[in-house]
Amino acid sequence: MLSCFSFLPSRFLNLIHNYLASNLFVFAIVCIFVRFLESFNTINIMQTIDKFNFAGKKAIVRVDFNVPLDENGKITDDTRIRGALPTLKKILADGGSLIIMSHMGKPKGKVNAKYSLSQIVDEVSNKLGVKVAFAPDCAKAADAAKALKPGEALLLENLRFYAEEEGKPVGIEKEDPAYEAAKKEMKAKQKDFAKTLASYADCYVNDAFGTAHRKHASTAVIADYFDTDNKMLGYLMEKEVQAVDNVLSNIKRPFVAIMGGSKVSSKIGIIENLLGKVDRLVLCGGMTYTFAKAHGGEIGNSIVELDKLDVALGVEELAKKNGVELVLGTDSVCCTDYDFASFSVKPGAKIEVFNSNNIPAEFEGLDAGPLSREKFAKAIEGAKTILWNGPAGCFECDEFTAGSRAIGDAIAKATAEGAFSLIGGGDSVACVNKFGLADKVSYISTGGGALLEAIEGKVLPGVAAIKGE
Ligand code: ADP
Ligand code: MG
Q: Which atom of ligand 1 is nearest to the CA of 430?
């Protein structure tokens, strides 16, 4: 490189050579060091549960114990409790004390025995292998938390018995001129509530993937009261975030999504988003009838959202534009008298199959009919990436499981043939468990809305709060 300067004395050239070489060496070392610092900043700045030693510490852990209960308060699906166990057990095994907090149902800021977490405290004790104490008021648990010794655990009563948890003012409509002021006041109270919860503990763990898409007191606001070293995601959260990443960063095609459940309105955001990602989209469950109605069909008593007919037509249009194959059921299993509260067919009620756009007035569509089931199974066949959220019928009742079962079986088959299948949503997971298919799919997510928002590519507030974003 220095040969072009050969007219210079060789000693002089050697000097320049050595100077450059040693400086390049220093330059390279500085570069490596800067990269190291950069990676330190972005990756390692977040505390991780694996690294953290909980010995002698009190940890407040937000879990998602919003488990379905039957009318006697018995847990009908314990997936969410099992999901949080690795985190809870690690804390106890380290010699830490546990303060467990969760919401259940939608009590809307009022105490309601139907949603009391006292109903699940024995089951949590059994699963955790220690007797878990119960604090009947989550905002007045300072003494109970203080009394905890290493290896002991306390479960707080339902956080949503306080409106502060969700931070939305109750008893006032958005249209009311006083709403903004009420909202501001509630946000201030939410901070105090989060501060109270934070005061019980030395560190905070968020393992509630199911509510990670909500910016609530216990899922996000509380994180402000802990420094970076003392707040972290739990094992379940880490796993869920990874599973979503697996799907999105490595979509193998065909990618088939199946969206069901009761209403189109609760799923429209993700449906529109999926129309930009998937090859086929199966729409089933209660939303079938909003689509049928939008085309002037007779849907009898079936569940329908009359203000969403244009939304349904818009979905069809977008699918066409994006070249996505939209798969809708054509027939339904219908019933004249179904009790949604007890998930049972009333005595003397009739059950018959009709075309989904020709259902007699006294019937309502509660499950996919035989032709639809075949169509759904065919749409799933050969898929390489599968996402399922929302059952295809009122699977809680044995008379109306066939549609969801057909989908579950087809997913299990595709998975055995190499597809990656991801199933999420409280009811969808309960459904997969009811059919004994849990170990025949690739990943079962404990999140419904959170999973869907993460798939949409949104940053979840529960994750952002820990990362300090
Ligand atoms: P997930 O919890 O998996 O996200 P959803 O909560 O959206 O699922 O929907 C599940 C509910 O949808 C179930 O309780 C089921 O009974 C109901 N559902 C499914 N099909 C129908 C239908 N045709 N009519 C009324 N409800 C339905
Ligand atoms: Mg649900």
A: 3
pLDDT bin (cut points 50, 70, 90) of residue 43 is very low
DSSP for 175-229, please give it: TSTTHHHHHHHHHHHHHHHHHHHHHT-SEEEE--GGGTTS--TTTTGGGGGS-GG
Is pLDDT above 70 for 402?
yes
Q: What DSSP line would sit under 360-407, residue for residue?
A: -TT-EEEEE-HHHHHHHHHHHTT-SEEEEES-SS-TTSGGG-HHHHHH
* Gap between the Cα atoms of 236 and 244, Å rounded: 12
If you measure from the C-alpha of residue 48 to the centroid of ligand 1, how many angstroms do you get, rounded to a whole number? 36
The pair of structure tokens assigned to 445 is 């997510």
- What count of other Cβ atoms lies within 10 Å of the Cβ of residue 269? 14
Catalytic residue among 127, 187, 263, 467: 263
One-letter amino acid of 345 = V
Question: Is-contact 62 218, C-beta < 8 A?
Answer: yes
Q: Closest ligand 1 atom, CA of 302?
A: 24
Structure confidence at residue 42 (pLDDT): 42
- Ligand 2 midpoint to CA 12 (Å): 79
Provide the pLDDT for residue 14. Answer: 63
Q: To the nearest 10°, the Cα dihedral for 202, 206, 207, 211?
A: 140
Between CA 371 and CA 374, with CA 372 as vertex, the angle to 5 degrees is 65
The protein residue with its alpha carbon nearest to ligand 1, atom 27, reads 262
- 64: three-class secondary structure by DSSP: coil
Indicate which residue's Cα is closest to atom 26 of ligand 1.
Answer: 262
The single-letter code of the amino acid at 138 is C
Q: Respond yes or no: is residue 448 known to be catalytic.
A: no
For a mutational test of ligand 1's pocket, the pick from 80, 213, 400, 427, i.e. the residue with the most ligand atoms closer than 8 A to its C-beta, is: 427
pLDDT of residue 31: 52
Is 131 catalytic? The answer is: no
187 counts as catalytic: no
DSSP 149-181: PTT-EEEE--GGGSHHHHT--SS--TTSTTHHH
Please name every residue paired with 101 in a beta bridge, in sequence order, or none if there are none.
62
Unique residue bearing structure tokens 């008893």: 171
Nearest Cα residue to 204 out of 388, 333, 89, 62: 62
Residues with CB under 6 A from ligand 1: 261-262, 285-286, 303, 365-366, 389-391, 393-394, 396, 425-428, 448
Are the C-beta atoms of 215 and 190 separated by less than 8 Å?
no
Is 263 tagged catalytic? yes
Tokens of 443: 């990943």
